[in-house]
TrEMBL record:
It holds the Pfam family PEP-CTERM. It comes from the Bacteria. The keyword Signal applies. InterPro entries: Ice-binding_C. Residues 176-199 form the Ice-binding protein C-terminal domain. This is PEP-CTERM sorting domain-containing protein. Residues 1-22 form the signal peptide. Keywords: Signal. The keyword Signal applies.
Length: 207
């Protein structure tokens, strides 16, 4: 029994480690929170082969130009990757107004399409190392989806075939996809149930 338990634990640990190491695509969610428009992003980005220069960026959102930048509420020095040729839509809504954030946190992260997916800008923290996990947020204040004229839905841009060579914007209610760590915990739970089911017949026989 100890051998079986040890094997189950080892299998679960190996699965957890393997899943956790898989690159997680970068996703920004934009939602209404207490009347405020709030954007929150996390994931990693593969910048292999992309050229960049250094510049200042401020968290901004604009639907028609396909702009979403999150991070500290300040002009922040960033790596600006340009030009990045994207596969994806030209915008995430027809609204022509751009709004700056009122507050924010985490790293400066964003995408600026500026009407041309073939020469877009990818904004990342200064000194960013490819595939490093990122997290970022921005509060754009008392504006709504309607006033910004953005369209609820999922918008994804890619520039390569790897999972983390993409940038996704999820606007409004979008079904959540379990994180890799969630799948790992679920597996460990199933392994535990399997162990309980295995022990019960043996306990009955001994009794």
């Amino acid at each position: 029994m100890k051998i079986v338990l040890s094997a189950l634990i080892s299998a679960g640990t190996l699965f957890f480690t393997t899943v956790a190491s898989i690159a997680s695509p970068y996703v920004v969610t934009i939602n209404q929170d207490g009347g405020h428009l709030v954007a929150t992003g996390s994931g990693s980005i593969d910048v292999t082969g992309l050229q960049h220069f250094s510049g200042l960026k401020f968290p901004t959102v604009g639907a028609e130009e396909g702009t979403i930048i999150t991070g500290p509420h300040a002009n922040t020095t960033a790596n600006i990757y340009y030009p990045v040729s994207l596969n994806g839509p030209t915008w995430f809504g027809p609204g022509s107004d751009e709004y700056r954030s009122l507050a924010g946190s985490g790293s400066i992260v964003g995408l600026e399409i500026d009407f041309n997916p073939n020469s877009a800008e990818l904004i990342l923290p200064a000194g960013y190392i490819s595939d490093t996990p990122l997290s970022s947020s921005a509060d754009f204040g008392l504006i709504t989806f309607a006033s910004l004229d953005i369209k609820p839905g999922t918008f994804t841009w890619t520039w390569g075939s790897r999972p983390d060579q993409s940038f996704t914007v999820e606007i409004g209610s979008v079904s959540a996809v379990p994180e890799p760590s969630t799948w790992a915990m679920m597996l460990l739970g199933f392994l535990g149930l399997g162990w309980i089911a295995y022990r019960r017949p043996n306990q009955i026989e001994v009794a």
